[in-house]
Amino acid sequence: MGTSLHSALRPADPASAAAWDIAATVCDPEIPVLTIEDLGVLRSVTVEDTGDAAGHPAVRVQITPTYSGCPAMDAIRDDVTAALKAAGYPAVQVDLVLSPAWTTDWMSEAGKAKLSEYGIAPPTGKAAAGPVRLGLSVKCPQCSSLNTREMTRFGSTSCKALYVCQDCREPFDYFKVL
Length: 178
Known about the structure:
25% of the residues lie in helices and 21% in strands. By secondary structure, it is of the alpha/beta class. Residues 137-176 form the PaaD zinc beta ribbon domain.
């Protein structure tokens, strides 16, 4: 599962844990090397006895967007529903949960490593509890240099910034700490 946070979120009862494991395989459509579990977007999965008319159990899944208005959430909702239905759960409900707000603190260490291997610098540090802005060095995922600079606050998606390495001259995305 990656971290103790993910282990704590995974349901203890076997039926819900089995459904969690299926939902946890769904990949983020914008960064396909990450699962929604890696991102910390998958918040809860519950299997309920009250399902459809044929007696199939119902599955309720809660997901939290990485930021308000994230366009990937519709695709994630559809992919979670499709994965669970393909696994034999005909009654699936996926709810968007906005509170508490998602933070990069919810990302697994395995997910951060996958980002780096994919060429995106993972978030560093912990999310601030207040309006604290620090200028931190961002390690280049290509050559590991800390001699980098931000080119633009928003990269290919709103949750990433565009950086360039001053040593190897390669541009790269940095997954911002939120």
